[in-house]
Automatic annotation (TrEMBL):
<dbReference type="InterPro" id="IPR050288">
    <property type="entry name" value="Cellulose_deg_GH3"/>
</dbReference>
<dbReference type="GO" id="GO:0016787">
    <property type="term" value="F:hydrolase activity"/>
</dbReference>
<dbReference type="InterPro" id="IPR002772">
    <property type="entry name" value="Glyco_hydro_3_C"/>
</dbReference>
<dbReference type="InterPro" id="IPR017853">
    <property type="entry name" value="GH"/>
</dbReference>
<dbReference type="InterPro" id="IPR036881">
    <property type="entry name" value="Glyco_hydro_3_C_sf"/>
</dbReference>
<dbReference type="Pfam" id="PF01915">
    <property type="entry name" value="Glyco_hydro_3_C"/>
</dbReference>
<comment type="similarity">
    <text>Belongs to the glycosyl hydrolase 3 family.</text>
</comment>
<protein>
    <submittedName>
        <fullName>Glycoside hydrolase family 3 C-terminal domain-containing protein</fullName>
    </submittedName>
</protein>
<dbReference type="Pfam" id="PF00933">
    <property type="entry name" value="Glyco_hydro_3"/>
</dbReference>
<keyword id="KW-0378">Hydrolase</keyword>
<dbReference type="InterPro" id="IPR036962">
    <property type="entry name" value="Glyco_hydro_3_N_sf"/>
</dbReference>
<dbReference type="InterPro" id="IPR001764">
    <property type="entry name" value="Glyco_hydro_3_N"/>
</dbReference>
<dbReference type="InterPro" id="IPR013783">
    <property type="entry name" value="Ig-like_fold"/>
</dbReference>
<dbReference type="InterPro" id="IPR026891">
    <property type="entry name" value="Fn3-like"/>
</dbReference>
<dbReference type="Pfam" id="PF14310">
    <property type="entry name" value="Fn3-like"/>
</dbReference>
<feature type="domain" description="Fibronectin type III-like">
    <location>
        <begin position="688"/>
        <end position="757"/>
    </location>
</feature>
Amino acid sequence: MTADVAVETTPEAPLWNDPDRPLTARVDALIDAMTLDEKIAQLYGVWVGASADGGEVAPHQHDMEEAVDLDALLPSGLGQLTRPFGTAPVDPALGALSLLRTQSRITAANRFGIPAVAHEECLAGFAAWGATAYPVPLSWGATFDPDVVRRMAAAIGRDMRSVGVHQGLAPVLDVVRDARWGRVEETIGEDPYLVGTIGTAYVQGLESAGIVATLKHFVGYSASRAGRNLAPSPVGPRERADVLLPPFEMAIREGGARSVMHSYTDTDGVPAAADESLLTGLLRDTWGFDGTVVADYFGIAFLKILHGVADDWADAAGAALKAGVDIELPTVKTFGAPLAEAVADGRVPEALIDRALRRVLGQKAVLGLLDPDWSPVPPALAGADLDDPEALRGTVDLDRPENRELARELAEKAVVLLANDGTLPLAAPRRIALVGPNATEATAVLGCYSFPQHVGVQHPDVPVGIDLPTLRETLAAEFPDADITVARGTGVDDGDLSGIGEAVDAAGRADLVIAVLGDRAGLFGRGTSGEGCDAESLALPGAQQQLLDALLDSGTPVVTVLLAGRPYALGRAAAGSAAIVQSFFPGVAGTQAIAGVLSGRTNPSGRLPVSVPRGPGSQPATYLGARLAQASEVSNVDPTPAFGFGHGLTYTSFAWSELAVDAREAGTDGEFGLALTVRNTGGRPGTEVVQLYLHDPVASVVQPVQRLVGYARVELEPGESRRVRVTVPADVASFTGRDGHRIVEPGDLELRLAASSTDARLTATVILTGPERRVDHTRRLHAVFTQEPAARP
């Protein structure tokens, strides 16, 4: 096989193969030429795994699937290939060759020569063996830096595109409503504006590389009752509209996302997969989305199995198709023979199939998959000898130095210094007791959708595929003159107390204890964080709190380091630790980033994307609570966090001053202009994150006490000042009124310029005047920040 493999064409190529013809005409002509079976075949995927020797992919078996007969399916065509790289450990070059050969087989088998769209997971990097594992989305949120996330996503997208992948199943835009939910690590945080801006940046980066970004999970998944995976979501229409939907709205409007994945959940008795008002009425008719809606894996079948709103597979297929789902993933179950039978007996109009098909084929056309010169050879294999698979092994590098450098930058910006009594940064520690289950665990930096934790754990005989230095190794490099004694103390979740005595002895002989605690990422109960790994409380898993308390009792200063997928209550360690360093599964460069913060080589600049609770049982609680959600004398449960959303310390200090307001009044269609001066009053360079919160004292419906409406990272040298200006449109004060429409109300507002949700520095009281104004999805979404050097005094 040579690198010039392509679909054969003639001068009389059909209209649909002509890229110079209008897209609509091409798609319509192709649909008109198709049989019903050929139409339906474009609306489902098949779960496959790449061949380790470069041969064609093989169907992957799962307990939700029946066996798939590719020979029987392919003559009608195929819509998608599910996770050819993300199903088993395969050398990337041989995986690309396997995908190439499979695409050649697919195009040869169907009479239109249409290839499949190949999709992969890419939540914390391309989920393929040997690919860079970046920090998880909760760390993206901690950076408060859309630019670095955009650059990371572009790098992920380039790697995916290079080996023949077309679509990525990311980002997750669920807003955290209960930190006990196992998938908190996959989210960006508990604030919709932060989730929206960071998630939109990810979409922009992925799409810039030619990869179709897939927004998930639309919508309400993270609001499940009691934080349980796949539980019902008891949210009202206002919480849905004002908290859960805005990130999706922003990512579609500003990010250009081309696909949306429906949620598993039901809201008020209507499953998302069968919600026509959501998937068609809002998403398409109101927001104008013209991309594809894909099923979350097995989500259409769940309409029968879990939700009980469909009598059989055909009913499930018809309900999803009518609602607006275009593609069944991960494999064919309801959109195959059951759907064809439902059309034949009149239960499902063929027009619904044509509607979905028009979107699917339109996207394939934009991807170039209908062009006469389309080739299955991906860029990574261009010019290679495709007849010698072994010569290809090791020739495709998905973990290049520039990837790791980007992973390092993001990890460093995401480390949050929660507390510090002056112990950090460490100057030249002589004797360190390094204690805890994550001190010597290489994979402690990885989330559940990283390839090693998602797939690699099922193949213990295969090397992890990427370099993952432990914190023990990076601390030894960071402090070469220190005597480091290691004691495990206890496991992440085994409850073993037998090693605590040894850990305390090590602490007694040391000048400093570094306690490395947190989570183990996994799936469906195989970890303490991740999909299906929900928590009953926010106490540290296992016996880790007992270990931490025993270390505090030793009398040696304790620096608590957390490698985790969610925030945890730390008991008396929240106040008793000499310092607390929080990192949310920071990826391949994570331990170097933490070591750099401990030594002071890096000045921490991360801020909390989720609140850290004071106690383990106060969930669900986020900083977005209304007045009734705050601490009061009529309840003995205090939801006040130990560390609030947006909190984070640095090794320098900043002064905020000279607040100026252009005008105290503006119309409900106007804007306010604010300015302040931020000065680095410390002795080293640092980054302050200026956060803007809005407080609406009196509104026609209950509002959060405050909510984030803008932010900016301000990087300053020692002694340097910056004048920070922000334009605040009245639109950002909008909310869903009593009649279900989004409105801007006249009245008083407080614009709080703050270092966190619990640390307001400067407050401007302003007034919106004029009539109540209705706004929609075209409203202004951002308070716009600009920075300039401050005038010298």
